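Repro case for the chain-ordering regression, as requested:
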Amino acid sequence: MAGRRVAQKAIDWMAFAEYVSPDNRMKFNALKTISDTISSRLTSLPEKPPAIDWEYYRRTIAVAGLVDEFEKKFSALKIPMPVDTETAKIDAQEKATEKDAIAYVDASKARVVEYEKELERYQNMIPFELMTWEELNEAFHETRLDKEKHRYWPHKPITDM
Amino acid sequence: MLSRLALRAAPGVLRNLSPSLSAGALCAARSFHGGQPCLAPLPPLPERGGAVRHGFIPEEFFQFLYPKTGVTGPYMLGTGLTLYLVSKEIYVFNNETVSAVVFLSLVIYAVKRFGPDVAAFAEKINEEKLAKVSTIKNDSIKALETAIQQEKKEQERVAVRSYIFDAKRNNVAMLLEINYRERMLMVYNEVKKRLDYQVAMQHLKRRKEQDHMIGWVERNVVQSITPQQHKESIAKCILDLKALSKAAQATV
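-- result from build under test --
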């Protein structure tokens, strides 16, 4: 029974490490250390305790009935599985993260589309050698001179020159 | 003509059509000009001027006159025209002419002497401006590409978030398992310890009993020896020793 429970989803730590961003590296390392510690502790423990040689004790111990009582009580004793309270919390956490992650991915995709639009604008731009001033103003709005605000040449504050 | 006709016919057409279509029908009915419209991307203006002869007369002028006049024709035309103007006194030589000749030669000299430098300077300024704006453009493109890559990478990172939760769940499961195994091992150890204690106690008790019995037997034996027996045994010992020493001498 014990062996079955541990057979969880195996984690490919190498693949995982590739996806970790540099600023999360410390946290990742901490998690990996903890997991490795736990798994090494688990492997160091035997799956089942070695069986007690009742016959030997029965032969050796003179007190009548003592070993029989021990054996009876030992076999009657059932060790309860520790109750799992944390998995539910982790599931809830994952669910909460799920929503954030979807929102983030959507926003990211929107951003990518925006960037690509901007990139396309840059790539389809008229070469600067062939541009007129009007086209330059069209392409880069910040180069347009505000003749209403600054009525006299150079139509922009002297400090910007 | 035709457009005017169409215009005159238009009210009649409009009346027949439904009001929503009227504007479009009017546009379709009139053809204002049949020429090919100018296509939007005009070829860029040439960077340099065309070929010229003698510094200012365009090559096309010569090419235009060649079929009519032959190779010398343009020069003949120029010479004849000048002679005609001079002989008819349409153009009069005076002090202004001298001044014009001097001024023009000075201008030509200045252009020949300083023209290339000025051109190079202007070219350099232009190049600098172009370099500046293309740097800005290239930087922006690079920044955008980097940003897109970054976003894609972030998306991938978000996509594998299940690793973290799997790891956590694994840890929890393993901890529970460790706890369970530790408990089992503890029970086993405790039971075994107690049994071993019983065994050890039993051994100890037996050894004590044996020791005690040996001591008791010894004590009783020692007590039972009388002085008579003691003396006899000493005498027997001395006799034995003597016999031993004799045997030792014989062998030596």
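Ordering looks correct now. The CA atoms of residues 13 and 32 of chain A lie 8 Å apart.
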